[in-house]
Amino acid sequence: MAEETLTKERILDTAESVLRKFGFAKANMSDIARAIGVSHAAIYRYFENKAMLQQAVVERWMNGVFEPLAQSMKEAGSPETRLYHWLSALRMFKRERARQDPELFAMYARLVADTPGALEIHIEHLLEQLQILIEDGKAAGIFICDNPRQAALGVFLATTRFHHAAFVSEWEEPEADSRFEAIWHMLLRGLSANR
């Protein structure tokens, strides 16, 4: 590949393949450059060091969830339905990724844990979306809460076991869906103006 046609996306795609083969600790910028067919100096034009490349790889992986979540936020329906669909989209996206490629999912879970600030930034984006949904419900008189941000955090924490990689071993258990429904009904009762 000519260095003139090199793109950030191409580097990230290749980095994922190289990481899969060697693991992040053993993979280096030269391995990625070699796999693309460019000099390692070409990679450094896009990423100053391996840590920055790791950050970009992790962000792209985690940000994949925002497309299905954005779709669920655009759906018509009651605030309760939109919130339920958002939580379900988050849960099913993570579950599907783990099902499709458990090895890659586990590798990324380790990478996320080893990338300073990555998880905090990701959670902040998720909380912002949750807060919007709760504010919409409050404006419609469906949800009661003094502090939508605090309510968003409560909903997020209550559902963590259904979308955090630390709980991946539970996602395929026969009771997983009924557990989610039980938590959902408790949350809905807590938020509801008609309790």
From TrEMBL:
Keywords: DNA-binding, Transcription, Transcription regulation. Residues 5-65 form the HTH tetR-type domain. Gene3D superfamilies: Tetracycline Repressor, domain 2. It comes from the Bacteria. InterPro entries: Homeodomain-like_sf (IPR009057), HTH-type_TetR-like_transc_reg (IPR050109), HTH_TetR (IPR001647), Tet_transcr_reg_TetR-rel_C_sf (IPR036271), TetR_C_27 (IPR041478). SUPFAM superfamilies: Homeodomain-like, Tetracyclin repressor-like, C-terminal domain. It holds the Pfam family TetR_N. The keyword Flavoprotein does not apply. Residues 28-47 bind DNA. This is TetR family transcriptional regulator. It comes from Paenibacillus farraposensis.
